[in-house]
Design a protein that fits this description.
By secondary structure, this protein is of the alpha+beta class. The protein folds into two domains: 151 residues, Aminotransferase class 4, branched-chain amino acid transferase, N-terminal domain (D-amino Acid Aminotransferase, Chain A, domain 1), CATH 3.30.470; 166 residues, D-amino Acid Aminotransferase, Chain A, domain 2, CATH 3.20.10.10. Helices cover 25% and strands 28% of the residues. It is built from nine helices and 18 strands. The strands form two sheets. Strands 1, 2, 3, 4, 5, 6, 7, 8 and 18 form a nine-stranded antiparallel sheet that branches. Strands 9, 10, 11, 12, 13, 14, 15, 16 and 17 form a nine-stranded mixed sheet that branches. α7 packs across α9. The model has no long low-confidence stretch (mean pLDDT 96). Bound molecules: pyridoxal-5'-phosphate (PLP). Pyridoxal-5'-phosphate binds next to α7.
Length: 352
């Protein structure tokens, strides 16, 4: 049963069609947010309040030792003021895995999932209506304890914020395989969605951008050889008709789009291999003419075809994929499902 969340409504809605439909990603927040605090070993009841600043200690533990984690998924408009969330239960499960890795308290489903439903119902008018637009939901949790001792905080804050998000229109993404910095290594936090992973990635992304690329393609932290994932997306390659993607082994984020795309590919009886693939294998497949395409896979774009790929002093242009190529087919299927044009066979959509 849906938990009831108390709501304090704003008296000054900021909603305008311009803000809702044209804002750059993550630049505009909807009128309300959900907030809950953890203290004395338990979560307090969540509440929905107007979006805005909240008092915080000057020395919150998150600022010192980085117990800060987040999630991200989308809600799509449906006719008659309806809406659907895409796999919020999978994001909830991933957030709780991140909590365990970061020694933070798990968040109950009644706060994460029912809270999202209640919040989106309150801010339903903020969901952009045009095809491909969505309301992006950003749950975040951080340590609020006022302490300098290096130990898990005893207090935390959980917030769900939402942002209208326009369709992701972009050409292909150009990536440079990173050979100086690493994102993750076995036993580290690569599979967790913690802020520190992103902080540690920013310099590499900036340097890639200076060289004329959109982002980096991370290689494994030990041999600097095996492909892991792109800056903000998982990756897959189409080689000789088979979709090849690096396995989940603790060093890459287990993307929910990745999981959805692999499931749809298997439904379509397209061969899929979750296996280690070296950057040399990718360049060799291109040289032999068997590399038929490659893409980043994630919530923002679903499938973002990779264009140029550089590693050290060699560079290739990955063949562009036609609409009937496996990854584009799975991407179109997922897009159709999110928009309600294709039946939801896997029960991925949660109605609001
Ligand atoms: C590092 C990283 N990898 C992969 C992904 C894709 O994950 P998802 O499909 O759950 O959005 C994201 C985006 O959340 C990401 O930040």
């Amino acid at each position: 049963m849906l938990a009831t969340v108390p709501v304090t409504r704003t008296t000054h809605s900021r909603l305008t069609p311009e803000l809702r439909d044209k804002a750059a990603f993550g630049a505009v927040f909807s009128d309300h947010m959900l907030m809950a605090d953890y203290a004395n070993g338990k979560w307090g009841d969540p509440r929905i309040i107007p979006y805005g600043a909240q008092p915080l200690a000057a020395a919150p533990a998150v600022a010192h030792y980085g117990q800060g984690i987040f999630e991200g998924f989308k809600v799509f408009a449906r006719p008659n003021h309806g809406a659907v969330a895409f796999r919020p239960d999978a994001n909830h499960a991933r957030m709780n895995r991140t909590c365990r890795r970061m020694a933070m308290p798990e968040i109950p489903a009644s706060t994460f999932i029912d809270g999202t439903m209640a919040l989106v119902a309150v801010d339903r008018d903020w969901i952009p209506e045009s095809a491909g637009s969505a309301l992006y939901v950003r749950p975040v949790m951080f340590a609020t304890g006022e302490q300098l001792g290096v130990r898990p905080s005893e207090t935390f804050r959980f917030i769900i914020e939402t942002c209208p998000s326009a369709p992701y229109f972009s050409g292909s993404v150009d990536l440079i395989a990173e050979d100086t910095y690493v994102r993750a290594f076995p036993g580290g936090t690569g599979a967790a969605k913690c802020g520190g992973n992103y902080a540690g990635s920013m310099l590499a992304a900036l340097e890639a951008q200076k060289k004329g690329f959109h982002n980096v393609l991370w290689l494994d932290g030990i041999e600097r050889k095996y492909v892991e994932e792109a800056g903000l997306m998982n990756v897959a390659f189409v080689i000789g008709g088979t979709v090849v993607t690096p396995p989940l082994g603790g060093t890459i984020l287990p993307g929910i789009t990745r999981d959805s795309v692999l499931t749809l590919l298997r439904d379509l009886r397209i061969p899929v291999e979750e296996r280690r693939i070296s950057i040399d294998d990718v360049f060799e497949a291109h040289a032999k003419g068997t590399l038929q395409g490659a893409a980043g896979i994630g919530t923002a774009a679903v499938i973002a075809p990779i264009g140029r790929l550089r590693h050290k002093d060699r560079e290739i242009t990955v063949p562009q994929m036609s609409p009937d190529s496996p990854l584009m087919q799975a991407g179109a299927e997922l897009e159709g499902l999110r928009l309600g044009r294709i039946p939801d066979r896997h029960n991925w959509l949660k109605s609001i």
